[in-house]
Design a protein that fits this description.
single chain; alpha+beta; two-stranded antiparallel sheet; 18 helices; binds adenosine monophosphate; binds magnesium ion
């Protein structure tokens, strides 16, 4: 007889009080079929990768088969959406299957997205269409391969259902992996109800799970805020280093672990535009590219408010302490950003004084509408004989005097680096992706996927496994869009 499928769950969130979640099973989908399975991630999680691709495994990944050591649950949270507080959101189309401890010793959640209704579904159907599932698979794995903290994709599946969006589309499930799914909104949920004891339980849980080195600190809640501030500052600096616009930085979409979460209306810029907005619902540009660090501070301030009673009994003292930490964000972000951007232009150890050089390049890019990814990736052309024009051709006015000045300043700065050109070239290629998931290519993957053809999706995810490596056979995926291919708007889409 075939041995039973076995997955080594080791749950901890389910030991928290009952008002943190609702224990329930996913809906049983009619006909689960794998679209893509992420074997390397599965191996890292210590899962039986081979078995998971067999019938029982696929049913497990789609929530149809529940193992005896599982206790699936829907998590509750609240959140500020576009600045407005919503007292209860929660896993409306998601369900936590459980936690596993990977071969690297890290505890991670396995969560299904699109597995059916829960008590938090509100008016929604609890389902996901194929499009958002493909998009999240592509983008979250790309982020990981860029070296940016992120939730990941373990598997994408068809559910066998047809669901209704603007038209009828195939239903799909994403099995998502995260260090945890605890959001600023999870803290807000309990804080707004005045349940300080629950906020404390949650904070203690987060400290043990994500920041165990501070668990014995006398000032640990204060330090927790500082850790989250630091991680978010780093995260956003990294996003901006690849031209990423999250698009929906609501407090329920910001994690305590510092991982990127929620890939709804996100987009990578083609040509550089500092205030670029893609999301169709972000009418005021609240979540525009340049505003991301400021929104992070706004969100972290909401987190700080929930922690005040834990930081100090005296509210005034608590506020003062929290403010001091929030004030760290901008200098930290700036330091991280200079480091990220400086490395992109070949500076070995970027310094505060390099900010002007970086900003001046961005200004040229904005005026010259040059492609963000190619401008950085091809910058090494300037180090090669007779290739200067190739790089300058990325700008609308290749002979603009400001551009010529910048090249001069940049070359002078590199002289201080004290390194040979080959080493600089190598370093730059390591910090500037050759390939990103361009919006028009993602749209192509989705539109072809909806027609039943997943070839482009598989090609793109394959190409993005090594985003820094030049892979000439994927040339069509790296090219900026032609005018008629440009994606101007993205949609939340569920
Ligand atoms: P998001 O836009 O992904 O940040 O989701 C915001 C809230 O809407 C969360 O509570 C989701 O669970 C919920 N939600 C989004 N789409 C659906 C859906 N199709 N069915 C039920 N709930 C949904
Ligand atoms: Mg969300």
């Amino acid at each position: 007889m075939k041995p039973e499928l076995s997955v080594p769950f080791s749950n901890s969130f389910s030991s928290l009080p009952k008002d943190f979640y609702v224990k329930m099973y996913p809906e049983r989908m009619p006909d689960l079929r794998l679209i893509k399975f992420n074997s390397p991630l599965s191996d890292l999680l210590g899962l039986p990768s081979k078995d998971l691709q067999q019938k029982d495994g696929v049913d497990f990944l789609g929530g149809k088969k529940i193992l005896s050591n599982q206790e699936p649950l829907a998590q509750v949270y609240a959140g500020h959406q576009f600045g407005n507080f919503v007292p209860q959101l929660g896993d409306g189309r998601a369900l936590l299957l459980g936690e596993v401890i990977g071969t690297d010793g890290v505890r991670r959640d396995i969560q299904l997205k699109g597995s059916g209704k829960t008590p938090f579904s509100r008016m929604g159907d609890g389902r996901s269409g194929l499009g958002p599932v493909l998009r999240e698979y592509i983008v979250s794995e790309a982020m990981f391969n860029f070296g940016i903290p992120t939730t990941r994709a373990l598997a994408a599946l068809f559910t066998g259902e047809t669901i209704i969006r603007e038209t009828q589309v195939p239903g799909a499930i994403l099995a998502r992996v995260a260090k945890s799914h605890i959001r600023i909104g999870t803290f807000e949920y309990f804080s707004r109800k005045g349940q300080t004891n629950k906020v404390k339980e949650l904070a203690d849980y987060v400290i043990l799970r994500h920041y165990p080195d501070i668990k014995n600190d006398s000032d640990k809640y204060h330090t927790l805020l500082e850790k989250v501030v630091r991680n978010q500052a780093l995260l956003i600096a990294k996003w901006m280093g690849v031209g990423f616009i999250h698009g929906v930085m609501n407090t329920d979409n910001m994690t305590l672990s510092g991982e990127t979460i929620d890939f709804g209306p996100c987009a990578f810029m083609d040509h550089f535009e500092i205030d670029k907005v893609y999301s169709s619902i972000d009418l005021q540009g609240r979540y525009r590219f340049s505003n991301q660090p400021h929104i992070a501070i706004w969100n972290l301030s909401r987190l700080a408010e929930t922690l005040l009673p834990l930081i100090d009994e005296n509210q005034k003292t608590a506020i003062k302490k929290a403010e001091k930490i929030l004030e760290l964000f901008l200098p930290l972000f700036t330091e991280f950003w200079i480091n990220v951007m400086g490395k992109k232009i070949g500076i070995k150890k970027p310094k505060a004084s390099d900010k002007a050089l970086i900003e001046s390049l961005l200004k040229n890019m904005q005026i010259g509408r040059s492609d963000f990814t190619l401008t950085f990736r091809n910058l090494t052309n300037l180090l090669k004989k007779d290739q200067e024009q190739n790089w300058c051709a990325l700008f609308s006015d290749p002979k603009h005097p400001e551009l010529t000045n910048w090249i001069k300043d940049w070359k002078n700065r590199l002289k201080l680096n004290d390194k040979n050109k080959i080493t600089i070239n190598k370093q730059m290629n390591h910090h500037n992706p050759y390939i990103i998931p361009r919006n028009h290519i993602i749209e192509l993957c989705i539109s072809q996927g909806l027609q039943g053809d997943l070839t482009q999706f598989h090609r793109l995810t394959k190409a993005l496994e090594f985003p820094f490596k030049e892979q000439a056979h994927f040339y069509d995926l790296i090219k900026p869009p032609n005018d008629n291919e440009i994606v101007h708007q993205t949609f939340c889409g569920t």
